[in-house]
Specification:
globular; 22 strands; binds succinic acid
């Protein structure tokens, strides 16, 4: 398979003085070596984006939409290669990687359309001699730092609205998965993105490059997807240095509630879809599964039986549903969280150990007898481990679900329509899904409450994040 492995700055493929290795998490083999760039190259990328901004912003929305539409078509035309890249560097099973490629491409399609709808307003006047309007303008040069768990979709979810709005962008992809980002640059170039509009700075020196992106006075908007701890630091740098606009999509601790009146087969299917997506490595994966007393044992059995059947292996093997974790740190973290829960009295009804498929594979696990104090309930696991916690009634379920500083995604299963409305309103989460475990797509506003982030990505809201509102007063006329 052919792919680009040089960085992309100002429309040029750049080799850099040194390079770092990209590994396949399924077997730890080296796939490629890419440029290990630093602060100087990040400054150059920002300067290129700054130079490209006036001409790109001056294009009509329709002209920008045509380029974005072409980018979308090229991604869809290259979906097999993109899926293979995502699988190879990120570990995601091929069918899921293909799903991500289509999901990622859809942001370019959606924001090509939304570009044309950056409407201002006419505000009814308060004085006969004045007229008030607002207009929307691109915020300027944008910078983005994206995560490895969605090597493609988290890039297009930021870059497509930025470009649609008339902004230019500098991207720092994760060091684990830079190749998909470079493939997007290659397709963007073919689609007609002008030089400097979309720049990819590959690096293993995240903090040096991140500092430039957060503090450069030329960058007016910063968007980050990753952990809450890192997001807080980057957000503080952006605001403390140059008061940039900031979007943060941070960690979660998603509860999934199964009420006694739920269809248990639907709940099992939804819980598996949510918990085991990308081997549990998404910010919206159900982190803890809360089950009403009356159905706890029945649900635990059905769920564990289904989980035990999940096929684990390298993502490019037929029928694999659970791939490797991203690196050895991830395996160590999951192993230690499970070991702690078991030591504190939980039971692994299935799994509970590493998997024989390779060094970075963990067996899909269901833990019963989990309590609220355990780390698996309080912290994001980011692995294929499902802790089951009991609750006695709706009030207790909602209290446990909301007892966290995070507020990204929440799920619940019920057949009672009154409860559906009530609990949807009571959960303190940016996204709530009823009777379904996966819902992500380009038309919804994706984002969290509390320490899960700031701003929304996708949907109508996603374009707003890259626009400034300007109020204009037409005054003094008769
Ligand atoms: C994430 O894990 O950050 C994104 C998940 C999604 O887009 O569904």
């Amino acid at each position: 398979m052919q792919f680009r492995s040089d960085a992309y700055i100002d429309g040029q493929w750049r080799q850099g003085a040194s390079r770092f290795k990209v590994y396949n998490p399924a077997n730890q083999e080296v796939i490629a070596e890419v440029p290990d760039l630093g602060a100087a190259e990040a400054e150059q990328a920002v300067a290129a984006a700054h130079a490209a901004f006036p001409a790109w912003a001056a294009k009509t929305a329709k002209e920008r939409a045509q380029v974005l539409r072409a980018w979308y078509e090229l991604m869809m035309g290259d979906i097999d290669r993109l899926a293979r890249l995502i699988c190879m560097e990120g570990g995601k099973p091929l069918a899921e990687a293909r799903g991500e490629a289509a999901y990622g491409a859809a942001f370019a399609e959606w924001f090509a359309e939304e570009a044309k709808r950056a409407y201002g307003r006419v505000i009814p006047t308060t004085t006969a001699t004045r007229r008030y309007v607002t207009i929307k303008q691109p915020v300027g040069v944008c910078a983005a730092i994206t995560p490895w768990n969605f090597p493609m979709a988290m890039i297009t979810r930021k870059a497509a609205p930025a470009l649609a709005a008339g902004c230019t962008i500098v991207l720092k992809p994760p060091h684990q998965t830079p190749l998909t980002a470079l493939a997007l640059a290659e397709l963007g170039e073919k689609a007609g993105l002008p030089r400097g509009a979309f720049n990819v700075v590959t690096t293993e020196h995240a903090s040096a490059v991140g500092k430039v992106l957060c503090e450069s006075p030329l960058v007016r908007k910063f968007s980050f997807t990753g952990s809450t701890a890192v997001g807080k630091k980057l957000g503080a740098m952006c605001v403390g240095s140059t008061v940039k606009k900031v979007s943060l999509e941070l960690g979660g601790n998603a509860p999934l509630l199964v009420f006694a009146d739920a269809d248990l087969d639907v709940a099992v299917k939804g819980a598996i879809a949510s918990k085991f997506r990308n081997a549990g490595q998404t910010c919206v994966c159900a982190n803890r599964i809360l089950v009403e007393d009356a159905v706890y044992d029945a649900f635990a059995k059905k769920f564990a039986d289904a989980v035990a059947k999940l096929k684990v292996g390298a993502g490019d093997q037929d029928g694999v549903e659970i791939g490797p974790l991203i690196d050895d740190k991830a395996i160590d973290k999951v192993s230690s969280m499970v070991a702690e829960a078991l030591a504190d009295g939980a039971t692994a009804v299935t799994g509970g150990k590493k998997h024989g498929a390779g060094a970075q594979f963990y067996t899909p696990t269901v833990l019963t007898g989990v309590t609220r104090q355990m780390r698996v309930n309080r912290e994001e696991i980011f692995g294929p481990v499902a802790p089951l916690i009991r609750f006695k009634d709706e009030d207790e379920a909602v209290a446990i679900a909301n007892d966290t500083p995070f507020g990204l995604a929440g799920y619940f299963f019920t057949k009672d329509v009154n409860r559906a409305w009530r609990v949807a309103e009571r959960l303190e989460y940016g996204m709530v899904s009823i009777n379904e475990g996966v819902y992500s797509n380009e038309v919804i506003p994706f984002g969290g409450w509390k320490e899960s982030g700031l701003g929304r990505e996708g949907g109508v809201e996603g374009l707003e994040e890259y626009l400034e509102t300007k109020f204009v007063n037409f005054g003094g006329f008769a």
